[in-house]
Protein backbone atom coordinates (compact mmCIF):
# COMPACT_ATOMS: atom_id res chain seq x y z
CA UNK A 1 0.00 0.00 0.00
CA UNK A 2 1.30 3.41 -0.92
CA UNK A 3 2.37 5.86 1.74
CA UNK A 4 0.29 9.03 1.60
CA UNK A 5 0.89 12.54 2.84
CA UNK A 6 -2.31 14.52 3.42
CA UNK A 7 -0.94 18.03 3.17
CA UNK A 8 -2.21 21.41 4.27
CA UNK A 9 -5.61 20.51 5.69
CA UNK A 10 -7.25 21.53 8.94
CA UNK A 11 -7.49 18.56 11.27
CA UNK A 12 -10.67 18.40 13.32
CA UNK A 13 -11.22 16.00 16.21
CA UNK A 14 -13.75 15.95 19.04
CA UNK A 15 -11.43 18.20 21.02
CA UNK A 16 -9.13 20.11 18.65
CA UNK A 17 -8.94 22.04 15.39
CA UNK A 18 -5.47 22.71 13.96
CA UNK A 19 -3.42 22.91 10.78
CA UNK A 20 -1.13 19.92 10.19
CA UNK A 21 -0.11 17.28 7.67
CA UNK A 22 -0.81 13.58 8.11
CA UNK A 23 1.43 10.74 7.05
CA UNK A 24 -0.48 7.51 6.35
CA UNK A 25 1.31 4.17 6.27
CA UNK A 26 0.00 0.58 6.39
CA UNK A 27 -3.55 1.82 6.77
CA UNK A 28 -2.81 3.86 9.86
CA UNK A 29 -1.84 7.38 10.75
CA UNK A 30 1.93 7.21 11.12
CA UNK A 31 2.72 10.86 11.86
CA UNK A 32 1.05 14.22 12.39
CA UNK A 33 3.03 17.41 12.05
CA UNK A 34 3.52 20.72 10.32
CA UNK A 35 5.58 20.53 7.14
CA UNK A 36 6.11 16.75 7.14
CA UNK A 37 8.53 15.74 4.34
CA UNK A 38 6.98 13.84 1.41
CA UNK A 39 9.86 11.31 1.15
CA UNK A 40 8.33 9.35 -1.70
CA UNK A 41 4.80 9.50 -0.34
CA UNK A 42 1.86 10.23 -2.61
CA UNK A 43 0.96 13.82 -1.75
CA UNK A 44 -2.73 14.63 -1.36
CA UNK A 45 -3.52 18.34 -1.29
CA UNK A 46 -6.03 19.10 1.46
CA UNK A 47 -5.71 22.90 1.42
CA UNK A 48 -9.02 24.51 2.30
CA UNK A 49 -10.45 21.21 3.55
CA UNK A 50 -11.22 19.82 6.98
CA UNK A 51 -9.57 16.47 7.68
CA UNK A 52 -11.91 14.63 10.04
CA UNK A 53 -12.22 11.10 11.36
CA UNK A 54 -14.64 9.10 9.20
CA UNK A 55 -18.15 8.90 10.55
CA UNK A 56 -19.08 6.00 12.79
CA UNK A 57 -22.73 5.12 12.20
CA UNK A 58 -23.87 3.09 15.22
CA UNK A 59 -27.26 2.10 13.80
CA UNK A 60 -27.91 0.48 10.42
CA UNK A 61 -30.18 -2.24 9.05
CA UNK A 62 -28.62 -3.67 5.89
CA UNK A 63 -30.06 -6.68 4.06
CA UNK A 64 -32.65 -7.12 6.79
CA UNK A 65 -36.00 -8.88 6.48
CA UNK A 66 -38.69 -6.66 7.97
CA UNK A 67 -42.35 -5.82 7.41
CA UNK A 68 -42.90 -8.65 4.94
CA UNK A 69 -40.02 -7.60 2.70
CA UNK A 70 -36.24 -7.09 2.80
CA UNK A 71 -34.44 -3.74 3.06
CA UNK A 72 -33.39 -2.34 -0.32
CA UNK A 73 -29.74 -1.75 0.58
CA UNK A 74 -27.43 -4.66 1.26
CA UNK A 75 -23.91 -4.43 2.66
CA UNK A 76 -22.52 -3.43 -0.73
CA UNK A 77 -24.88 -0.64 -1.76
CA UNK A 78 -25.37 0.50 1.82
CA UNK A 79 -21.70 0.81 2.72
CA UNK A 80 -20.87 2.42 -0.63
CA UNK A 81 -23.51 5.07 0.02
CA UNK A 82 -22.19 5.45 3.57
CA UNK A 83 -18.70 6.09 2.18
CA UNK A 84 -19.99 8.75 -0.20
CA UNK A 85 -21.57 10.41 2.80
CA UNK A 86 -18.39 10.45 4.90
CA UNK A 87 -19.03 7.37 7.04
CA UNK A 88 -16.26 4.79 7.33
CA UNK A 89 -17.66 2.44 9.98
CA UNK A 90 -21.15 1.03 10.45
CA UNK A 91 -22.53 -1.14 13.22
CA UNK A 92 -25.44 -3.18 11.92
CA UNK A 93 -28.16 -5.02 13.84
CA UNK A 94 -27.91 -8.79 13.64
CA UNK A 95 -31.41 -10.22 14.04
CA UNK A 96 -31.81 -13.46 15.96
CA UNK A 97 -34.60 -16.03 15.89
CA UNK A 98 -36.31 -17.37 18.99
CA UNK A 99 -35.34 -20.95 19.76
CA UNK A 100 -32.35 -20.85 17.41
CA UNK A 101 -28.69 -20.50 18.41
CA UNK A 102 -27.32 -16.95 18.51
CA UNK A 103 -24.28 -18.21 16.61
CA UNK A 104 -26.49 -19.16 13.68
CA UNK A 105 -27.72 -15.57 13.35
CA UNK A 106 -24.19 -14.18 13.64
CA UNK A 107 -22.98 -16.57 10.94
CA UNK A 108 -25.82 -15.42 8.73
CA UNK A 109 -24.84 -11.75 9.22
CA UNK A 110 -21.21 -12.57 8.39
CA UNK A 111 -22.41 -14.23 5.19
CA UNK A 112 -24.45 -11.16 4.24
CA UNK A 113 -21.54 -8.77 4.76
CA UNK A 114 -18.24 -10.53 4.10
CA UNK A 115 -17.80 -10.14 0.37
CA UNK A 116 -19.81 -6.96 0.10
CA UNK A 117 -18.79 -4.35 2.63
CA UNK A 118 -16.74 -1.46 1.30
CA UNK A 119 -15.94 -0.02 4.74
CA UNK A 120 -15.35 -1.62 8.14
CA UNK A 121 -18.33 -2.89 10.11
CA UNK A 122 -19.43 -4.54 13.32
CA UNK A 123 -22.64 -6.09 14.62
CA UNK A 124 -25.01 -5.53 17.52
CA UNK A 125 -26.96 -8.61 18.58
CA UNK A 126 -30.73 -8.64 19.06
CA UNK A 127 -32.00 -10.40 22.19
CA UNK A 128 -35.68 -11.35 22.08
CA UNK A 129 -35.80 -13.96 24.85
CA UNK A 130 -33.56 -15.15 27.64
CA UNK A 131 -33.35 -18.92 27.90
CA UNK A 132 -30.74 -21.19 29.46
CA UNK A 133 -29.27 -21.66 25.99
CA UNK A 134 -29.05 -17.91 25.38
CA UNK A 135 -27.45 -17.32 28.79
CA UNK A 136 -24.89 -19.98 28.05
CA UNK A 137 -24.09 -18.76 24.55
CA UNK A 138 -24.03 -15.02 25.18
CA UNK A 139 -20.66 -14.71 26.98
CA UNK A 140 -19.02 -16.68 24.17
CA UNK A 141 -20.48 -14.43 21.47
CA UNK A 142 -19.37 -11.32 23.37
CA UNK A 143 -15.87 -12.73 23.80
CA UNK A 144 -15.23 -14.50 20.51
CA UNK A 145 -17.18 -12.31 18.11
CA UNK A 146 -16.46 -9.03 19.87
CA UNK A 147 -20.16 -8.23 19.79
CA UNK A 148 -20.36 -6.05 22.85
CA UNK A 149 -23.78 -4.48 22.44
CA UNK A 150 -27.18 -6.16 22.78
CA UNK A 151 -30.43 -4.83 21.35
CA UNK A 152 -33.82 -5.26 22.99
CA UNK A 153 -36.99 -4.12 21.24
CA UNK A 154 -39.75 -2.86 23.54
CA UNK A 155 -42.03 -2.53 20.48
CA UNK A 156 -43.13 -4.46 17.35
CA UNK A 157 -45.45 -6.81 19.22
CA UNK A 158 -45.44 -10.38 17.86
CA UNK A 159 -42.41 -9.55 15.70
CA UNK A 160 -39.31 -8.37 17.59
CA UNK A 161 -40.74 -7.30 20.93
CA UNK A 162 -39.23 -8.69 24.14
CA UNK A 163 -40.92 -8.48 27.53
CA UNK A 164 -39.64 -6.52 30.52
CA UNK A 165 -38.27 -9.68 32.15
CA UNK A 166 -36.10 -10.27 29.09
CA UNK A 167 -34.91 -6.68 29.15
CA UNK A 168 -34.05 -6.93 32.83
CA UNK A 169 -32.16 -10.20 32.47
CA UNK A 170 -30.32 -8.86 29.43
CA UNK A 171 -29.25 -5.85 31.51
CA UNK A 172 -27.94 -8.17 34.23
CA UNK A 173 -26.05 -10.31 31.75
CA UNK A 174 -24.61 -7.23 30.05
CA UNK A 175 -23.34 -5.90 33.37
CA UNK A 176 -21.64 -9.21 34.09
CA UNK A 177 -20.02 -9.59 30.69
CA UNK A 178 -19.25 -5.99 29.71
CA UNK A 179 -21.86 -5.25 27.05
CA UNK A 180 -24.02 -2.21 26.39
CA UNK A 181 -27.78 -2.81 26.20
CA UNK A 182 -29.58 -0.86 23.49
CA UNK A 183 -33.34 -0.36 23.56
CA UNK A 184 -35.96 0.62 21.03
CA UNK A 185 -38.13 2.35 23.62
CA UNK A 186 -41.83 2.35 22.80
CA UNK A 187 -44.70 0.54 24.52
CA UNK A 188 -45.52 -2.15 21.96
CA UNK A 189 -48.56 -3.51 23.83
CA UNK A 190 -50.32 -0.15 23.99
CA UNK A 191 -49.37 0.65 20.38
CA UNK A 192 -50.84 -2.66 19.26
CA UNK A 193 -54.15 -1.69 20.84
CA UNK A 194 -54.11 1.83 19.38
CA UNK A 195 -53.39 0.47 15.88
CA UNK A 196 -56.32 -1.96 16.03
CA UNK A 197 -58.59 0.82 17.31
CA UNK A 198 -57.53 3.14 14.46
CA UNK A 199 -58.01 0.53 11.75
CA UNK A 200 -61.44 -0.46 13.12
CA UNK A 201 -62.44 3.21 12.89
CA UNK A 202 -61.36 3.24 9.22
CA UNK A 203 -58.28 5.39 9.85
CA UNK A 204 -55.87 3.75 7.43
CA UNK A 205 -53.69 6.62 6.08
CA UNK A 206 -49.96 6.95 6.85
CA UNK A 207 -50.55 9.77 9.36
CA UNK A 208 -52.23 7.24 11.69
CA UNK A 209 -48.87 5.55 12.04
CA UNK A 210 -47.82 8.63 14.02
CA UNK A 211 -51.16 9.08 15.78
CA UNK A 212 -51.02 5.54 17.17
CA UNK A 213 -47.51 5.96 18.59
CA UNK A 214 -47.71 9.13 20.70
CA UNK A 215 -44.58 10.60 22.26
CA UNK A 216 -45.86 9.94 25.77
CA UNK A 217 -45.49 6.23 25.03
CA UNK A 218 -41.87 6.67 23.98
CA UNK A 219 -41.27 8.64 27.16
CA UNK A 220 -42.93 5.93 29.25
CA UNK A 221 -40.87 3.12 27.73
CA UNK A 222 -37.66 5.15 27.99
CA UNK A 223 -38.33 5.85 31.67
CA UNK A 224 -39.08 2.16 32.27
CA UNK A 225 -35.81 1.12 30.63
CA UNK A 226 -33.87 3.71 32.65
CA UNK A 227 -35.40 2.44 35.90
CA UNK A 228 -34.70 -1.21 35.07
CA UNK A 229 -31.11 -0.24 34.23
CA UNK A 230 -30.75 1.42 37.64
CA UNK A 231 -32.19 -1.65 39.33
CA UNK A 232 -29.82 -3.93 37.45
CA UNK A 233 -26.80 -1.66 38.01
CA UNK A 234 -26.19 -1.92 34.30
CA UNK A 235 -25.72 0.39 31.28
CA UNK A 236 -28.16 1.52 28.65
CA UNK A 237 -28.13 3.16 25.20
CA UNK A 238 -31.49 4.41 23.94
CA UNK A 239 -31.64 4.32 20.14
CA UNK A 240 -33.52 6.77 17.91
CA UNK A 241 -34.78 9.22 20.52
CA UNK A 242 -37.43 11.44 18.93
CA UNK A 243 -39.09 13.51 21.62
CA UNK A 244 -38.83 15.75 24.62
CA UNK A 245 -40.43 13.18 26.95
CA UNK A 246 -37.70 10.62 26.21
CA UNK A 247 -34.91 13.20 26.45
CA UNK A 248 -36.20 14.16 29.90
CA UNK A 249 -36.08 10.53 31.10
CA UNK A 250 -32.51 10.10 29.85
CA UNK A 251 -31.40 13.41 31.37
CA UNK A 252 -33.02 12.52 34.67
CA UNK A 253 -31.22 9.17 34.78
CA UNK A 254 -27.88 10.77 33.90
CA UNK A 255 -28.35 13.43 36.56
CA UNK A 256 -28.57 10.59 39.09
CA UNK A 257 -25.21 9.28 37.84
CA UNK A 258 -26.59 6.37 35.83
CA UNK A 259 -24.77 5.02 32.81
CA UNK A 260 -27.40 6.07 30.27
CA UNK A 261 -26.71 7.21 26.70
CA UNK A 262 -29.02 8.49 23.99
CA UNK A 263 -28.96 8.58 20.20
CA UNK A 264 -31.10 10.57 17.82
CA UNK A 265 -31.29 10.41 14.00
CA UNK A 266 -31.17 13.04 11.24
CA UNK A 267 -34.81 12.52 10.28
CA UNK A 268 -36.04 13.60 13.72
CA UNK A 269 -33.90 16.74 13.58
CA UNK A 270 -35.25 18.07 10.29
CA UNK A 271 -38.53 16.33 9.36
CA UNK A 272 -41.82 16.35 11.25
CA UNK A 273 -45.23 14.70 11.55
CA UNK A 274 -46.77 16.78 8.76
CA UNK A 275 -44.57 14.87 6.27
CA UNK A 276 -46.81 11.85 6.91
CA UNK A 277 -49.75 13.82 5.51
CA UNK A 278 -48.21 14.24 2.06
CA UNK A 279 -50.79 13.40 -0.63
CA UNK A 280 -50.92 10.34 -2.92
CA UNK A 281 -49.64 8.02 -0.20
CA UNK A 282 -46.29 9.85 -0.31
CA UNK A 283 -46.56 10.08 3.48
CA UNK A 284 -45.53 6.40 3.55
CA UNK A 285 -41.97 7.51 2.74
CA UNK A 286 -41.90 9.18 6.16
CA UNK A 287 -42.96 6.17 8.25
CA UNK A 288 -40.41 5.47 10.94
CA UNK A 289 -40.82 3.97 14.40
CA UNK A 290 -40.85 5.88 16.62
CA UNK A 291 -42.60 8.31 14.27
CA UNK A 292 -41.71 11.82 13.20
CA UNK A 293 -43.01 14.25 15.82
CA UNK A 294 -44.51 17.72 15.97
CA UNK A 295 -41.90 20.28 14.98
CA UNK A 296 -41.53 21.56 18.56
CA UNK A 297 -39.63 18.39 19.50
CA UNK A 298 -36.79 19.28 17.11
CA UNK A 299 -35.45 22.02 19.35
CA UNK A 300 -35.53 19.64 22.34
CA UNK A 301 -33.33 17.22 20.35
CA UNK A 302 -30.91 19.92 19.19
CA UNK A 303 -30.63 21.28 22.71
CA UNK A 304 -29.95 17.79 24.03
CA UNK A 305 -27.16 17.27 21.48
CA UNK A 306 -25.71 20.65 22.38
CA UNK A 307 -25.86 20.02 26.13
CA UNK A 308 -24.67 16.42 25.90
CA UNK A 309 -27.90 14.83 27.15
CA UNK A 310 -27.96 13.00 23.81
CA UNK A 311 -24.53 11.94 22.61
CA UNK A 312 -24.74 10.25 19.21
CA UNK A 313 -26.42 10.36 15.82
CA UNK A 314 -27.37 7.05 14.19
CA UNK A 315 -28.84 6.91 10.71
CA UNK A 316 -31.17 3.99 11.54
CA UNK A 317 -30.76 3.36 7.82
CA UNK A 318 -33.52 0.90 6.91
CA UNK A 319 -34.34 1.55 3.28
CA UNK A 320 -37.38 0.44 1.34
CA UNK A 321 -38.38 1.51 -2.15
CA UNK A 322 -41.60 3.46 -2.43
CA UNK A 323 -42.61 1.32 -5.38
CA UNK A 324 -43.45 -2.21 -4.31
CA UNK A 325 -42.29 -1.87 -0.71
CA UNK A 326 -43.73 1.22 1.03
CA UNK A 327 -46.75 0.58 -1.20
CA UNK A 328 -47.46 -2.64 0.71
CA UNK A 329 -49.25 -0.42 3.21
CA UNK A 330 -51.76 1.23 0.87
CA UNK A 331 -55.12 1.01 2.65
CA UNK A 332 -53.50 -0.10 5.95
CA UNK A 333 -50.77 2.07 7.49
CA UNK A 334 -49.73 -0.78 9.79
CA UNK A 335 -48.40 -2.66 6.75
CA UNK A 336 -46.07 0.11 5.59
CA UNK A 337 -42.50 -1.15 6.14
CA UNK A 338 -40.96 1.05 8.84
CA UNK A 339 -37.76 2.89 8.07
CA UNK A 340 -35.99 5.05 5.54
CA UNK A 341 -32.75 5.68 3.60
CA UNK A 342 -30.51 7.92 5.69
CA UNK A 343 -27.03 6.35 5.73
CA UNK A 344 -25.64 8.72 3.10
CA UNK A 345 -26.89 12.07 4.40
CA UNK A 346 -26.49 11.56 8.18
CA UNK A 347 -23.03 13.17 8.31
CA UNK A 348 -23.82 16.14 6.07
CA UNK A 349 -27.18 16.94 7.63
CA UNK A 350 -25.60 17.16 11.07
CA UNK A 351 -22.86 19.41 9.71
CA UNK A 352 -25.13 21.65 7.69
CA UNK A 353 -28.02 21.97 10.13
CA UNK A 354 -25.81 21.76 13.20
CA UNK A 355 -22.45 23.44 12.59
CA UNK A 356 -23.26 25.73 9.65
CA UNK A 357 -26.38 26.97 11.45
CA UNK A 358 -24.56 27.51 14.74
CA UNK A 359 -26.43 24.92 16.81
CA UNK A 360 -23.36 22.84 17.73
CA UNK A 361 -19.62 23.44 17.47
CA UNK A 362 -17.35 21.82 14.89
CA UNK A 363 -15.72 19.67 17.59
CA UNK A 364 -19.10 18.63 18.96
CA UNK A 365 -20.00 17.60 15.43
CA UNK A 366 -17.04 15.21 15.25
CA UNK A 367 -17.87 13.82 18.67
CA UNK A 368 -21.53 13.20 17.79
CA UNK A 369 -20.98 11.84 14.27
CA UNK A 370 -17.94 9.69 15.01
CA UNK A 371 -15.94 9.76 18.25
CA UNK A 372 -18.61 9.06 20.84
CA UNK A 373 -19.96 6.03 19.03
CA UNK A 374 -16.43 4.66 18.65
CA UNK A 375 -15.95 5.03 22.40
CA UNK A 376 -19.29 3.58 23.47
CA UNK A 377 -19.05 0.63 21.13
CA UNK A 378 -15.47 -0.43 21.84
CA UNK A 379 -13.71 0.89 18.74
CA UNK A 380 -11.79 3.87 20.11
CA UNK A 381 -9.05 4.92 19.38
CA UNK A 382 -8.72 2.64 16.40
CA UNK A 383 -11.79 4.40 14.99
CA UNK A 384 -13.32 7.78 15.75
CA UNK A 385 -10.30 10.08 15.90
CA UNK A 386 -7.30 11.46 14.05
CA UNK A 387 -4.32 10.31 16.09
CA UNK A 388 -1.00 8.54 15.52
CA UNK A 389 -1.72 4.81 15.46
CA UNK A 390 -5.41 5.16 14.64
CA UNK A 391 -6.80 3.70 11.43
CA UNK A 392 -6.51 6.19 8.58
CA UNK A 393 -10.30 6.47 8.20
CA UNK A 394 -10.59 10.07 7.07
CA UNK A 395 -12.97 12.49 5.45
CA UNK A 396 -11.62 15.38 3.42
CA UNK A 397 -14.51 17.77 3.86
CA UNK A 398 -15.15 21.02 2.01
CA UNK A 399 -17.08 23.21 4.44
CA UNK A 400 -17.93 25.78 1.77
CA UNK A 401 -19.36 23.46 -0.89
CA UNK A 402 -23.12 23.32 -1.30
CA UNK A 403 -25.38 20.64 -2.68
CA UNK A 404 -29.06 19.83 -2.99
CA UNK A 405 -30.13 16.38 -1.80
CA UNK A 406 -31.84 14.28 -4.45
CA UNK A 407 -32.61 10.65 -5.17
CA UNK A 408 -31.27 11.23 -8.69
CA UNK A 409 -27.79 11.81 -7.34
CA UNK A 410 -27.65 9.68 -4.20
CA UNK A 411 -25.95 6.29 -4.04
CA UNK A 412 -28.47 4.39 -1.94
CA UNK A 413 -30.33 1.62 -3.75
CA UNK A 414 -33.72 3.19 -3.27
CA UNK A 415 -36.14 5.24 -5.36
CA UNK A 416 -36.59 8.29 -3.12
CA UNK A 417 -34.74 10.41 -0.60
CA UNK A 418 -36.66 11.69 2.43
CA UNK A 419 -34.51 14.84 2.43
CA UNK A 420 -35.18 15.55 -1.28
CA UNK A 421 -34.61 19.22 -2.12
CA UNK A 422 -32.76 20.10 1.07
CA UNK A 423 -29.87 22.49 0.49
CA UNK A 424 -26.81 21.42 2.45
CA UNK A 425 -23.62 23.27 3.24
CA UNK A 426 -20.47 21.13 3.30
CA UNK A 427 -19.43 18.13 1.25
CA UNK A 428 -17.29 15.03 1.91
CA UNK A 429 -15.06 15.40 -1.15
CA UNK A 430 -12.85 12.35 -0.58
CA UNK A 431 -13.02 9.52 1.93
CA UNK A 432 -10.29 7.10 3.01
CA UNK A 433 -10.75 3.79 4.78
CA UNK A 434 -7.57 2.41 6.39
CA UNK A 435 -5.48 4.67 4.17
CA UNK A 436 -7.18 3.74 0.89
CA UNK A 437 -9.41 6.09 -1.02
CA UNK A 438 -12.90 4.64 -1.23
CA UNK A 439 -14.25 7.91 -2.63
CA UNK A 440 -11.88 10.29 -4.40
CA UNK A 441 -13.11 13.67 -5.62
CA UNK A 442 -16.69 12.31 -5.49
CA UNK A 443 -15.82 9.23 -7.58
CA UNK A 444 -16.15 5.77 -6.05
CA UNK A 445 -12.79 4.00 -5.82
CA UNK A 446 -13.63 1.34 -3.23
CA UNK A 447 -13.90 -2.40 -3.71
CA UNK A 448 -16.72 -4.50 -2.29
CA UNK A 449 -15.36 -7.00 0.21
CA UNK A 450 -12.46 -4.84 1.34
CA UNK A 451 -14.35 -3.82 4.48
CA UNK A 452 -13.20 -5.66 7.59
CA UNK A 453 -15.31 -7.11 10.36
CA UNK A 454 -14.59 -5.33 13.65
CA UNK A 455 -14.38 -7.29 16.87
CA UNK A 456 -15.16 -4.69 19.48
CA UNK A 457 -13.89 -4.25 23.02
CA UNK A 458 -16.15 -4.70 26.00
CA UNK A 459 -18.16 -1.78 27.27
CA UNK A 460 -15.97 0.39 29.46
CA UNK A 461 -12.70 -1.18 28.35
CA UNK A 462 -9.94 1.26 27.50
CA UNK A 463 -8.28 0.41 24.22
CA UNK A 464 -4.73 0.90 23.12
CA UNK A 465 -3.76 1.03 19.48
CA UNK A 466 -2.47 -2.51 19.53
CA UNK A 467 -5.61 -4.26 20.66
CA UNK A 468 -8.46 -2.24 19.20
CA UNK A 469 -9.43 -5.07 16.90
CA UNK A 470 -9.05 -7.80 19.44
CA UNK A 471 -11.03 -7.50 22.64
CA UNK A 472 -9.75 -10.84 23.87
CA UNK A 473 -6.24 -9.44 23.99
CA UNK A 474 -7.29 -6.09 25.41
CA UNK A 475 -6.96 -4.74 28.88
CA UNK A 476 -10.27 -4.07 30.54
CA UNK A 477 -9.64 -0.99 32.57
CA UNK A 478 -12.91 0.72 33.47
CA UNK A 479 -13.30 3.96 31.55
CA UNK A 480 -16.98 4.67 31.26
CA UNK A 481 -18.50 2.84 34.19
CA UNK A 482 -18.94 4.73 37.42
O1 LIG B 1 -38.67 2.58 11.56
C1 LIG B 1 -37.59 2.11 11.89
N1 LIG B 1 -36.90 2.69 12.84
N2 LIG B 1 -37.12 1.01 11.26
C2 LIG B 1 -35.96 0.29 11.58
C3 LIG B 1 -36.15 -0.66 12.71
C4 LIG B 1 -36.00 0.02 14.02
O2 LIG B 1 -36.96 0.06 14.79
O3 LIG B 1 -34.93 0.53 14.32
ZN1 LIG C 1 -36.04 0.72 16.46
ZN1 LIG D 1 -33.21 0.78 13.76
ZN1 LIG E 1 -3.23 7.44 20.38
Automatic annotation (TrEMBL):
<feature type="modified residue" description="N6-carboxylysine">
    <location>
        <position position="151"/>
    </location>
</feature>
<feature type="domain" description="Amidohydrolase-related">
    <location>
        <begin position="50"/>
        <end position="437"/>
    </location>
</feature>
<keyword id="KW-0378">Hydrolase</keyword>
<dbReference type="InterPro" id="IPR006680">
    <property type="entry name" value="Amidohydro-rel"/>
</dbReference>
<comment type="similarity">
    <text>Belongs to the metallo-dependent hydrolases superfamily. Hydantoinase/dihydropyrimidinase family.</text>
</comment>
<protein>
    <submittedName>
        <fullName>D-hydantoinase</fullName>
    </submittedName>
</protein>
<keyword id="KW-0479">Metal-binding</keyword>
<dbReference type="InterPro" id="IPR011778">
    <property type="entry name" value="Hydantoinase/dihydroPyrase"/>
</dbReference>
<dbReference type="GO" id="GO:0005829">
    <property type="term" value="C:cytosol"/>
</dbReference>
<dbReference type="GO" id="GO:0016812">
    <property type="term" value="F:hydrolase activity, acting on carbon-nitrogen (but not peptide) bonds, in cyclic amides"/>
</dbReference>
<dbReference type="InterPro" id="IPR050378">
    <property type="entry name" value="Metallo-dep_Hydrolases_sf"/>
</dbReference>
<dbReference type="InterPro" id="IPR032466">
    <property type="entry name" value="Metal_Hydrolase"/>
</dbReference>
<dbReference type="InterPro" id="IPR011059">
    <property type="entry name" value="Metal-dep_hydrolase_composite"/>
</dbReference>
<dbReference type="Pfam" id="PF01979">
    <property type="entry name" value="Amidohydro_1"/>
</dbReference>
<dbReference type="GO" id="GO:0046872">
    <property type="term" value="F:metal ion binding"/>
</dbReference>
Amino acid sequence: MTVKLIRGGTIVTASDTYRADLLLRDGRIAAIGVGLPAEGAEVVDAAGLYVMPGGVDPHTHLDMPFGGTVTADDFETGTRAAAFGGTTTVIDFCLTNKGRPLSEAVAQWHAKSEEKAVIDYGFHLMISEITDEVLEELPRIIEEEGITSLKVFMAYKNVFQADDGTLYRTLLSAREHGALVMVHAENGDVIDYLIREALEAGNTDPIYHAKTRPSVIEGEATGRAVKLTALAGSQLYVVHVTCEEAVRQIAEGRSRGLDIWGETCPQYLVLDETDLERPDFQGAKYVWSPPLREKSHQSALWNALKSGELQTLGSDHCSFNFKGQKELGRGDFSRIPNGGPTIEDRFSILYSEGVAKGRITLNQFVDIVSTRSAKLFGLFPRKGTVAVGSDADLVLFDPAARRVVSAELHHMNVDYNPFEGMELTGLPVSVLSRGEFVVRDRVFTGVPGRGQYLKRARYGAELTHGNAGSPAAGTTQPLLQG
